Protein: E3 ubiquitin-protein ligase TM129
Organism: Zoarces viviparus
Amino acid sequence: MDSPELSFTLAYVVFSLCFVFTPNEFRSAGLTIQNVFSSWLGSEDVGFIQYHVRRTSITVLVHSALPLGYYMGMCIAAPEKNLGYIHQVSDSWRAFLLLSLCIQLTSWTLVIYWSRRHWHNHPISRALQAHIQPPHPGWGSVASSVNTEFRRIDKFATGAPGARVIVTDSWVLKVTTYHVYMALQTDCHVTVTESRQHQLTPDLASPAQILTLRVDSINPAVRPFDIRLLSTEYAELREKLHAPIRNSPNVVIHQTMSELFLETFRAQVDLNQPYTLPSGQEVEPCIGCMQVPANSKLVRLCQAEAAHNESECQQCFCRPMWCLSCLGRWFASRQDQQRPETWLSSRVPCPTCRARFCILDICAVH
């Protein structure tokens, strides 16, 4: 494979991946199905169900055309291969072209089948048919109910366009690239199955905990599905969700910035130099909570970091009196709550003697 062919292949693969799994940069540039075909798709607020029926259909057609687009692009990028003349190309390229045409033909056949009887066969329409019950005589009536509730401003909505979670007064909806999952709140129950801690996120300056919740319905025709959201959005979800929520064992939900900070705080203290108690000195209970031993000690260590500059930290002569959790909460409570990105680099006074210290001065007691 020569250089022009390789360059085009790499560029097309990157473009295809970004077009399918759309990053923020592509959304900002308007390179999305929703933006390119906005005139045909219509407004999501006016007709939520109709909008996503059209969106998922055009998404299948466009994504299935990517292999054929690669072949057509290669005709221009590598003209010496004569890919435009079918009888002159190699067997491998001829097989690739045939496969690309089959994928495109299959997708058109599928979308045409979906569109029959006013999109009655579409997967979203079939999902709506599972909820036909009084007072909804048909799936069109169910769609109207979803559309009406989606237009209300008090709905809960979060997530990227390819994995949105929407909770209205009666419905739990998950919007994905090719489908819209839905469940009636009165028929479902929700279970928190997993939590993951992410230290770096593109949209947040601080670590984020992402929760996975499984939505199960007592309606056998409704398939279970998972939704994901930030732990800081969990409280808002609970307010809107009337269905019961259960927690799986060992899943801890951090709902406040202070709790998220404590995780990072403990991790940083573990990296600091430990403090060894003098012989004969016993560890006393923490004077903050009186529940656990006082396992932290303030020792001025950051002076080495200051080099030729005068450090703002001061030596603390207090014996170990606080546990890491209580000291971390004290540290967080003295910060600017509107600027969490500055918390780890800040200095606060000792809760006992008021000597100023930073997070580098906190040592775990061994």
About this structure: The two ends are 61 Å apart (CA to CA). Residues 261 and 267 are 10 Å apart (CA to CA). The longest strand covers residues 188-198.
